[in-house]
Amino acid sequence: MSKGPNHQLAAVMAEAGVSNKGLAKRVRDVAQRHGEHLGTTHVAVQRWLSGGGIQRQTAAFMAEALSDKLGRKVAPKDLGLPGAPTAPSTEAGVCYAGSLTEALATLDSLTHQRPEDGPADEAPLSDSDAHSAALSWLVSRPDGLPADTPGKRVGMRDVAAIRTAAGFFMQLDFQFGGGHAHKAFRHYFREDVLPLLSSGYSPKVGDALFKAASEMSQLLAWSAYDGGNHALSSRYMLSTLRLTQAAGDRMMGARILTNMSHQANYLRQVPRAIMLARASVEGGRSHATPRAMALFSVHEARALSTAGDHKGAGHAMNEAERFFERADTGDDPEWLSYMDEAELVGEFCHCFRDLGQGPEAVHFAERAVALTDRKYARTLGFCRMVLAQSHLINGDLEAAVATAGLAVEEGDALQSARFQRYVSDFQGALAAHAHKPAVQRFNERVRDAVAQLGDE
What is the rounded distance in angstroms from the CA atom of residue 346 to the CA atom of residue 308? Predict the structure, then answer.
């Protein structure tokens, strides 16, 4: 929430004899000295002079810039700004935050962590932490957003900018995967989104602002997930889940639980995946559109299929299909636009593959490949690999290898750590046929494609 004009900052700037543009440049220079890229401009400086929110790291850079100019030590508190940030902690975000302030501080900390620097093999959440988070969210009440306040104003134009940026980053993620542009993404979130949450806005704008911020935060979680850093991804998810509580966005919260189930299923934490998926279905039931409920239900089916529960998975798939039949009757948010027939069919083919039902898996995988828009390169790669695996279940080695070869040669999904595991799992399934020329040629194609990826 805005505190009104920042007279302390104005006084130190006057003493140093720097203009808004001059200070902005000095802040950028200091950040660069510390290996960070900031897009600070005179507009941001004016926002801070008006009492707008600022991230702790940026406040520290500003204090250092003014210290250099004045030749004496200036601390953020001397500028009426929050103190220096604590070092990013690998433990940040492992529990469901007790307050919105804690959740925002955790998100700020997470944006200083690079996916490539952390552990890539397991999620840090214990089963008790995952259960506690799901229960806490299910029984939560909205925090309530600040009422109309003076000072720096956030309007619907700011919210529209966030949504536009989210759409841009989502498309980059769909097309290139592997955490592509994650650095620029987290910088934008830290410097241009999080500060707005501490500014002034009307109740209507605040509701839209927090929903847009949650949407972008969960995209950061997905890009870290696809890049292979499950520890960082799960912390983003948990903090985003807490963020959805602020404005009572139950549909997005249920989606986050679905994402957490998806990750747990991928990591073969099957009981956790089932629990989280069912929590998303129950949490969204009275608040979500039919299209969203189809998404939540099909991920319950995915988790139950991994568990080998034919009856439960069949019921959940039927539920998803029934919800999807009414998909066009709901007023869906923009973030749900990807949940089309191709997406539903693609999830079904995963279910039948995991249940060992080869003919059904081939049928749905072929439909998914035919229906998937080529701009969703990663999704198309997944579906082709599931089709290859399904052919193998049916004993059709030639079709399996040919289909997998096409998925690998397309190349667009190879930067995705998840896609790479689809390929390695398929190669493992081919081990019994390693002596056959077709399999040897496929393995060679994989080696060539991976080597070529390093040159692009």
Answer: 18
Written as six digits, the tokens of 268 are 């073969």
pTM exceeding 0.70: yes
Distance between CA atoms of residues 414 and 178, nearest Å: 8
pLDDT tens per residue, range 307-352: 999 999 999 999 999 999 999 999 999 899 999 999 999 999 999 9
Contact criterion met (CB below 8 Å) for 393 and 356: yes
**Two structure tokens written together for 452:** 């070529």
In the block, which residue shows the tokens 């989502």? 170
What residue spans of 17-126 are helical by DSSP H?
20-33, 42-49, 56-70, 100-110
User: Where is 432: in which H helix or E strand?
Assistant: none
Cβ partners under 8 Å of residue 435, min gap 6: none
| Half-sphere exposure (Cβ direction) of 314: Cα atoms closer than 13 Å | 6
Burial of 451 per CB tally in 10 Å (0-12, 13-18, 19+): exposed
Q: Is 34 exposed, middle or buried (0-12, 13-18, 19+ CB in 10 A)?
A: exposed
List, as one string, the DSSP characters of 327-339: GGGS---GGGTT-
Residues 423 and 385: beta-carbon distance below 8 Å: yes
Structure tokens at 176: 């290139």
Q: List the chain domain ranges.
A: 7-79, 101-114+125-141+154-248
Tokens at residue 455, please? 């040159």
